[in-house]
């Protein structure tokens, strides 16, 4: 099963998007400062271990806007209590 998570760059980091998420001819794309929903995989786990991103999961506290910016989902940053 694939897990969809919402990520945001931490500390003003410039986090590159993996090539499989970049459109053709744009291998230099970065994770937008407002965040993006992605499928959780080893690439994002490494970014999290490097403390480059915040990971938000569904079903916990905190509010992060969904991709349509019309409603909010209840989410909590990974590692917060």
Fill in the keyword field for this structure.
81 residues; mainly beta; 4-stranded antiparallel sheet; 1 helix; 4 strands; 10% helix; 36% strand
Structure description:
With 81 residues, the protein is mostly beta strands. The protein has one domain. 10% of the residues lie in helices and 36% in strands. It has 1 helix and 4 strands. It has a 4-stranded antiparallel sheet. A hairpin with a 6-residue loop joins β3 (53-65) and β4 (72-77). The radius of gyration is 13 Å and the shape is globular. The two termini are 25 Å apart. The model is unreliable at 67-75 (pLDDT under 50).
List the helices and strands and how they pair.
Blueprint: E1 4-9, E2 36-39, H1 42-49, E3 53-65, E4 72-77
Antiparallel strand pairs: 1-2, 1-3, 3-4
What's the gist of this structure?
The protein has one domain (about 5-75).
Q: End-to-end span in angstroms?
A: 25 Å
Question: Tell me about the biggest sheet?
Answer: 4 strands, antiparallel
Q: Quickly count the domains.
A: 1
Measured as a percent range, the helix fraction is under 10%
- Could you give the count of β-strands? 4
Number of helices: 1
Please tell me what the overall shape is. Answer: globular
Integer-rounded radius of gyration: 13 Å
- DSSP strand (E) fraction? 35-45%
Q: Which sequence of SSEs, written as H and E, runs from N to C?
A: EEHEE
Look at the structure and give the mean pLDDT.
Answer: 79
What class, by secondary structure content?
A: mainly beta
Poorly predicted runs are 67-75
